[in-house]
């Protein structure tokens, strides 16, 4: 197989890793107003991702770097056409990261409340805009013969794009609440399980509509991998329903694992629907950006392949080790004990 096609799927793997890992980070941040009844419970929630959130975000940096190196034409059109949404995502991620580091620097409720609000919005904005961006990439956007995006921000705010944003917002929220239930104890854990049931049911409804729309659109376009699109969409739906069922039975580990599987197959659904294009043109199919006309040279892709073979396993091992080290629950008693020692 041509290396360009291999790298199309490798880039997809990096985006799957990013959305699975940073997806639950976003959900944890968005859950603060619903589960954080006092400062100790809010610290419990934030501490569940405290050791790993910045490591999770590196996946999008690697994905962007691979996109730039393997598909420069795709990178150029995407980042110029989606400049404002991507800028908003970047600002939100910066504000969220700053808030994690600064909220505990002053013992003032108003100080903490401001940074908590930044965590919530810094999680919700990317969760929504990533879905809008992905849905529009799959659906197609106005691209001219020079491979330049000719639309505006309003072009991206179409029904399919907005629905994609709502689905990723709900999916990441539910995924994050599963993680909170898995990593905490006491009242926060019990509240998280109840909240995950309600948000999970909403997610099932929204995701079912979005996935069905995606499959039907792929059928209408005659997408070459339409069978894989339908299979991945079905798997995403089954795993999502399974996650809600596991949560109802208080099987937090299974609920979180099924939630991660849902994100994985949802991204694969979009990736398979996109193939063999990387950015379809809604102006004229002849102007589609495809895997072949948007990729780098074989020499560049060969060097990248060797780098991926060497370094990707090391990254996975390091991240797995990190999660193993911080695998224990964040208990309320431990935070209260730390407060007593500090005072």
Automatic annotation (TrEMBL):
GO MF, one example: electron transfer activity
A single GO BP: aerobic electron transport chain
UniProt keyword terms in alphabetical order: Cell membrane, Electron transport, Heme, Iron, Membrane, Metal-binding, Transmembrane, Transmembrane helix, Transport
Membrane topology classification: Multi-pass membrane protein
Primary residence: membrane
One of the record's GO cellular component terms: plasma membrane
Locations listed in the record: Cell membrane
Bilayer-spanning residue ranges: 6-32, 77-98, 119-139, 159-181, 201-219, 225-246, 253-274, 303-326
NCBIfam families on file: cydB
Listed PANTHER family: CYTOCHROME BD-I UBIQUINOL OXIDASE SUBUNIT 2 (PTHR43141:SF5), CYTOCHROME BD2 SUBUNIT II (PTHR43141)
Entry similarity comment: Belongs to the cytochrome ubiquinol oxidase subunit 2 family.
This protein's name: Cytochrome d ubiquinol oxidase subunit II
Record gene name: cydB
């Amino acid at each position: 197989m041509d290396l360009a096609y291999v790298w199309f799927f490798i880039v997809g793997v990096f985006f799957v890793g990013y959305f699975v890992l940073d997806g639950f980070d976003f959900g944890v941040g968005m859950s603060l107003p619903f589960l954080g009844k006092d400062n100790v419970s809010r610290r419990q929630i934030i501490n569940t991702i405290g050791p790993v959130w910045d490591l999770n975000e590196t996946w999008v940096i690697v994905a962007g770097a691979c996109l730039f190196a393997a598909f420069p034409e795709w990178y150029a059109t995407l980042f110029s056409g989606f400049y404002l949404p991507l800028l908003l995502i970047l600002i939100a991620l910066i504000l969220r990261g700053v808030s994690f580091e600064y909220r505990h620097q002053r013992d003032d409720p108003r100080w903490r409340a401001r940074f908590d609000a930044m965590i919530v919005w810094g999680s919700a904005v990317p969760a929504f805009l990533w879905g809008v961006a992905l849905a529009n990439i799959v659906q197609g956007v106005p691209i001219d013969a020079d491979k330049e995006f000719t639309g505006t921000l309003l072009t991206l705010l179409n029904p399919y794009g907005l629905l994609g944003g709502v689905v990723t917002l709900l999916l990441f929220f539910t995924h994050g609440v599963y993680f909170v239930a898995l990593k905490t104890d006491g009242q926060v854990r019990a509240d998280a399980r109840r909240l995950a049931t309600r948000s999970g049911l909403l997610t099932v409804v929204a995701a079912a509509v979005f996935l069905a729309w995606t499959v039907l659109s792929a059928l209408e376009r005659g997408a070459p991998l339409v069978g894989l699109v339908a299979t991945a969409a079905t798997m995403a739906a089954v795993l999502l329903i399974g996650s809600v069922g596991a949560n109802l039975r208080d099987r937090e580990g299974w609920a979180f694992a099924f939630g991660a599987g849902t994100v994985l197959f949802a991204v694969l659904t979009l990736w398979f629907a996109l193939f063999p294009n990387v950015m379809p043109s809604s102006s004229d199919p002849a102007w589609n950006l495809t895997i072949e006309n948007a990729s780098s040279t074989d020499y560049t892709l060969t060097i990248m392949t060797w780098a991926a073979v060497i370094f990707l396993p090391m990254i996975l091992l390091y991240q797995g080790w990190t999660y193993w080290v911080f695998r224990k629950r964040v208990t309320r008693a431990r935070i209260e004990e730390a407060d007593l020692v500090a005072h």
